[in-house]
Design a protein that fits this description.
- By secondary structure, the protein is mainly β.
- The chain folds into two domains: 126 residues, Thrombin, subunit H (Beta Barrel); 104 residues, Beta Barrel (Thrombin, subunit H).
- It is 7% helix and 34% strand.
- Strands 11-12-13-16-15-14 form a six-stranded antiparallel β-barrel.
- A hairpin with a 5-residue loop joins strand 14 and strand 15.
Length: 275
């Protein structure tokens, strides 16, 4: 999610910033991460996982992170609020395909960001809308992109969330702790009614954790929600966008994910126009 300080950053932490995949509050003990909100260290390599370093727009001393998904050799899909200049500044590079936030994988420079023209930050008035954006890299990477699903599974479908977001579910950005190791959380698609009225829709997926007190959190924004395709491989269905209800902590409420399949046509046309 977007990461900010001040009352505005607090708002983003609850909406824009509170949309993260893999909300895994992990405490570092004896060199290993012990999941606090029942997330866990990544159990396999996700070649399409992308970490995007960001800096607070109002506070340059604040260093955070967003997630993304490699969907083409040099294109990354993320949340629009992760590249919103009123909230954060993308630091200029991304890391692709690593289970570590600050090492491994492939580092590429960002040459362009393209936000969906209908994007609107919900702040504390409701969900983010059309919360999707594309990042073009300076040159292709060797990592394998992930396929966007034809459609999300029905409510109840098992999914997986990924992210490098804060491992501490606290409202103050000073208390956020970003893990070095990629975190994953098993979840499921929720019915529209499982999120607050007006939040979930045909373009916004309500998401429920399969274990108590667990959900993506600040810093996971833009990261992927995956489901198994017919061939058993992971495919992309969601982009971490925000909370599924107002005024709830990350680990206590449903999450809201922009439906990647719903924007597949916009994604294809945008990539084609921009090379």
């Amino acid at each position: 999610m977007s990461n900010l300080k001040s009352s505005r950053r607090s708002t983003v932490a609850r909406t824009a910033a509170v949309a993260l995949a893999g909300a895994v509050c992990a405490a570092m003990m004896s060199g290993s991460a012990q999941a606090i909100v029942n997330g866990k260290d990544s159990t396999e390599r996700y070649s399409a996982m992308v970490s995007i370093p960001v800096t607070g727009a109002d506070d340059p001393t604040f260093k955070g992170v967003c997630g993304g998904s490699l969907i083409d050799g040099k294109w990354v899909l993320t949340a629009a609020h992760c590249v919103d200049p009123t909230l954060v500044t993308v630091d200029g590079t991304v890391r692709v395909g690593s289970e570590w936030r600050n090492s491994g994988g492939t580092v590429r420079s960002v040459t362009k960001t393209i936000t969906h023209p209908g994007y609107k930050n919900g702040d504390n008035l409701g969900p983010n809308r059309n919360d999707v954006a594309l990042i073009r890299l300076d040159r292709p990477v060797a990592e394998k992109p992930i396929r966007i699903a034809d459609k999300p599974g029905r409510p109840g479908t098992a999914t997986r969330l990924l992210g490098f977001g804060t491992v501490k579910d606290v409202p103050d950005t000073d208390g956020w702790v970003f893990p070095e190791r990629l975190q994953e959380l098993d979840a499921r698609r929720g019915a529209v009614s499982a999120c607050a009225p007006g939040y979930a829709s045909s373009t916004r997926l309500c998401t429920i954790s399969q274990v108590p007190h667990a959900m993506a959190c600040n810093g996971d924004s833009g990261g992927p929600q995956l489901q198994r395709g017919r061939d058993g491989r992971w495919e992309l269905i969601g982009v971490t966008s925000g909370p599924g209800a107002p005024g709830v902590r990350c680990s206590e409420g449903p999450g809201l994910y922009t439906s990647a399949p719903a924007y597949a046509d916009w994604i294809k046309k945008t990539i084609k126009r921009n090379g």
